[in-house]
């Protein structure tokens, strides 16, 4: 399964995949009435699936691993997109998540919990993941865990993946995130992508503390490095993102002004952009620029659609040294083109 290492390959695991149903509201939602939708769409989803779709849209070499029956609609939809899949069959259908989007771009999410995975299914997923990781540059563990899954499963997976030589990125929240960071340095991923709410959970702060107090934000990020995380990509929605590395580099980026259509999957596209830039050999500031450019492009699209590189404008992203609001100068070099698969940083 593994074969020789493929220098640009990414493997994603989505343990709790979904069909993402986006419902376009004609006005802000009012309870108790009848709403005649302005439109709707359905996309294959789950955070790891979204990352894989964005990478594939850039021509990336990506394998998406998930539990689903061969006849499940999510498998049909992903194969129609041309994604390479590795699935473990399960009896229950993949869950459906609903996103309500009003004309101002405000989103309300209604997520089903998903079906519990048996011990045998988790073991099979872990084995397939390990086999594909041995030939990959990056492995992405992304999203929530299904009901009854041990909260430390991601921590266990990180440990088992160490011998593959692949770099590991994790994007999760709540109990799985806390368990991952409590499991010791041997379970720490190379890259962690929290948002402000998730960083606050880890640091025992409120989200307002993180957003309004740069010193609190910086201290919270440093606690992640102290636990063994090499790179922290902190996404801040419309305020952009922060990248911190364990060797002391700290950058922030502001997105361009856009008309927000849907924020569903924007963080996943940010992670995909970061990985594309990393695969292209870009330095940290340019990895951050590409991440923010991808997130902004995603938010400008309807539903959980993912952007192609042609829709991503890295030159419109302002990158500065330090935290948001810093008066430091931007990087002295001009921004590179947004990386596409097979095109290195110039």
TrEMBL record:
Pfam family, one: PfkB
Biased composition (Pro residues): 329-338
Any one of the GO CC terms: cytosol
Keyword RNA-binding: no
Start and end residues of each Carbohydrate kinase PfkB domain: 36-310
Gene3D superfamilies reported for this sequence: 3.40.1190.20
Tagged with keyword Transcription: no
Domain of life, source organism: Bacteria
Alphabetic keyword roster: ATP-binding, Kinase, Nucleotide-binding, Transferase
Single Gene Ontology MF annotation: ATP binding
Residue segments, region Disordered: 320-346
Family: Belongs to the carbohydrate kinase PfkB family.
Protein name listed in UniProt: 1-phosphofructokinase
């Amino acid at each position: 399964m593994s074969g020789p290492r493929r220098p640009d390959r990414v493997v994603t695991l989505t343990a709790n995949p979904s069909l993402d149903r986006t419902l376009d509201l004609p006005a802000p939602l009012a309870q108790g009435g009848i709403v005649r939708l302005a439109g709707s769409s359905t996309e294959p989803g789950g955070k790891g699936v979204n990352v894989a779709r964005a990478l594939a849209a850039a021509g990336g070499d990506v394998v998406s691993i998930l539990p689903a029956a061969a006849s499940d609609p999510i498998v049909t939809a992903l194969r129609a997109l041309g994604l390479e899949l590795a699935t473990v069959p399960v009896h229950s259908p993949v869950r459906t998540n609903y996103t309500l989007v009003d004309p101002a771009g405000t989103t309300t999410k209604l997520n089903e919990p998903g079906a519990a995975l048996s011990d045998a299914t988790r073991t099979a997923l872990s084995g397939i993941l390990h086999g594909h990781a041995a030939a990959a540059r990056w492995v992405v563990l992304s999203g929530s865990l299904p009901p009854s899954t041990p909260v430390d499963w991601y921590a266990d997976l990180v440990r088992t993946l160490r011998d593959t030589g692949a770099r590991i990125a994790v994007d999760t929240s709540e109990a799985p995130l806390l368990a991952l960071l409590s499991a010791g340095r041997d379970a720490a991923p190379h890259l962690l992508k929290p948002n402000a709410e998730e960083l606050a959970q880890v640091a025992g702060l409120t989200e307002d503390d993180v957003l309004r107090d740069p010193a609190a934000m910086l201290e919270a990020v440093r606690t992640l490095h102290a636990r063994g995380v090499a790179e922290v990509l902190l996404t801040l929605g419309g305020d952009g993102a922060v990248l911190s590395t364990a060797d002391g580099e700290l950058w922030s980026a502001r997105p361009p002004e856009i008309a927000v259509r849907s924020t569903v999957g924007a963080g996943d596209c940010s992670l995909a952009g970061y990985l594309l830039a990393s695969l292209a050999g870009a330095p940290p500031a340019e990895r951050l620029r590409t991440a923010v450019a991808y997130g902004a492009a995603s938010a400008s699209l309807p539903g959980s659609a993912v952007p192609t590189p042609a829709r991503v404008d890295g030159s419109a992203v302002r990158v500065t040294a330090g935290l948001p609001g810093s008066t430091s100068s931007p990087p002295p070099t001009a921004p590179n083109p947004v990386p596409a698969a097979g095109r290195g940083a110039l």
